[in-house]
Amino acid sequence: MTILIIILSIILIALLMVFIAYKESDKIILRNTKRSQITVFPDQLKLEFERVIFKNSDGITLKGWFIPSEQESSKTIVFMHGWGMNKGTILQNTAFLRRKYNLFYFDFRGSGESGEGLSSIGYLEIRDAKAAIEKLIETRPDACKEIGLYGLSMGAAVAIYEGSHNDLIKCVVAEGCYYSYEKVVARWARVHKHTPYFPLVALALYFAKKRLGMDPEEFSPKYNIEKLNGKPVFIINGADDTLSPRHDARKLYRRAKEPKQIWIVPNATHTEVADVAGQQYKNRLNEFYDKYL
Length: 293
Hints:
Distance between the termini: 74 Å
Helix content: 40-55%
CATH architecture: 3-Layer(aba) Sandwich
Number of helices: 10
């Protein structure tokens, strides 16, 4: 009888872990319940802009802002925000680039003003980025004869992938970029939820892959940054970033081909480099885009 109770207890615990892991996979493929609200708009910064509405290949409506350069330009920088963020998150810290370049900000699926959709922390968002660039080329060909990318956190991973698969992209800035999909999910779960990798995170990743119908790990930056094949890449990371730590940034840098740059910013945490570095941040971005775009 005692042995039977032990066996039943083990089975119940295992089933409970499977159930918890399945629910945790919801947090990996983020739903709209945690959508962040846009708090910074171009008109608040007295910027001229045009609203852009388009659909991705999944039929989801995405929304963006096109901000023309202060001086007429055929060069455009496309901005990609991080997981749980929106286009307004990065506007305030990068709007200074409009002095020389057109700027195009858009919300990924399930973020900001865009339509509903699961998040894969990179894989599905690649379709959004592709649609955004296609819309830009279709509607404003004279403004995007040369295109540069800027990605923050998850957006950096998407920017690296798009840059490595789109011949029209001239250069990429990747800030706070993760190295591996599986590792960043495990690190997030450990830091924010104190969840052990085995068995819960491993099971949650398994369910997330099954529900997405593919393995997002294959689209990780570690497999794509070398495919940039000579397109300039600027890797930026906070020295105190615990989600995308500096040693991951250095591993990405080692995998990248020349020309490449890396900047590890002291005392900066995840996505906080612009606030910490101040004017130096503006100077470094201007120098990179002026040289390669």
